[in-house]
Amino acid sequence: MLDSEVPATTKNSSVISEADSQRTLYPYVTGTSVVGIKYKDGILMAADMGGSYGSTLQYKGVERMKPVGKHSLIGASGELSDFQEILRYLDELILYDNLWDDGNSLGPKEFNPLWNSLVLGGVKNGQKYLGTVNMIGVHYEDNHVATGFGNHLARPILRDEWHENLSFEDGVKLLEKCMRVLLYRDRSAVNKLQATKITEEGVTISQPYALKTSWNLAAFKNPTVGAEGPW
Fold first, then answer.
1. Catalytic residue among 24, 132, 147, 199, which?
2. Which of 39, 105, 112, 26 is nearest to 74 (CA)?
3. Contacts of 71 by beta carbon, 8 Å cutoff, 6+ apart
4. CB under 8 Å to 150, separation ≥6 — which residues?
5. Which residues make beta-bridge pairs with 48?
6. 3 found inside a domain
7. pLDDT score of 219 more than 90
8. Which residues fall within 8 angstroms of residue 178, CB to CB, at 6 or more apart?
């Protein structure tokens, strides 16, 4: 059949079908690192509030961590509109689960992404879960995880200093140490962050706050000293 002979309704449905199946190939507004750790009572997570439009730090008040149901907390790096889509999907999933009214509720291990690297943590029936998954399906569980530059800059600190009996206060200090290093080294990070915790009692997300920083370090005054090549 010639294209001119194809009914208009068939053409339109084909166009709509193609549009509906599109996926993010070129992210526009993105968030950087999320860092999560287990502590003695539950899970702690931290992320700054920057949103980068390409290489421009366009937004400085983006929340990238959200509670999901009763037992889970999710934080995201990557394309922020895709994170919003994931949250919409998860809201529908939680609503559908609640409609069963069977006394059961979804935990952190029951969730499946888009253009994002996700950190998912939760506590259910006394068991703590902390894991990460990226856009191509690479996933793992550990006692501490990170996305973005945090995977390279924060995890060495966590390997040295994390232990399973961390108190809430010490856990927050450790996360802040990681976030401070990321602020110094990651151009997409901003000095405005939130910290979250989840325990059997529920989720608590802090108000945005800034870290104390010092830019008077010798390495920042003349960063090209000792570097090879013309500058």
1. 24
2. 112
3. 105, 106, 107, 108, 122, 123, 124, 198
4. 32, 33, 34, 35, 178, 182
5. 193
6. no
7. no
8. 35, 46, 146, 150, 153, 154, 157, 158
Is residue 24, in this structure, part of any structural domain at all? no
In a domain, 35, yes or no: yes
CATH code for the domain of 157: 3.60.20.10
| Residue linked to tokens 């983006």 | 62
30-56 pLDDT, tens digit each: 999 999 999 999 999 999 999 999 989
Domain count, the chain: 1
- In this structure, is residue 51 part of a structural domain? yes
> E strand or H helix at 202, and its extent?
strand 202-205
What is the H or E stretch that residue 177 is in?
A: helix 168-185
* Alpha-carbon distances, residue 112 vs 43, 102, 106, 157 (angstroms): 19, 22, 12, 29
Non-local (6+) Cβ contacts of 38 within 8 A are 44, 121, 128, 130, 143, 144, 164, 166
Strands 51-53 and 29-31 come out as antiparallel
Q: Residue 193 sits in which domain range? A: 29-100+113-207
24 counts as catalytic:
yes
Half-sphere exposure of 230 (CA within 13 A, CB side): 0
pLDDT tops 70 at residue 12: no
How far is 44 from 175, CA to CA, in rounded Å?
8
Residue 215 clears pLDDT 80, i.e. is over it: yes
How far apart are alpha carbons 128 and 151 in whole angstroms? 21
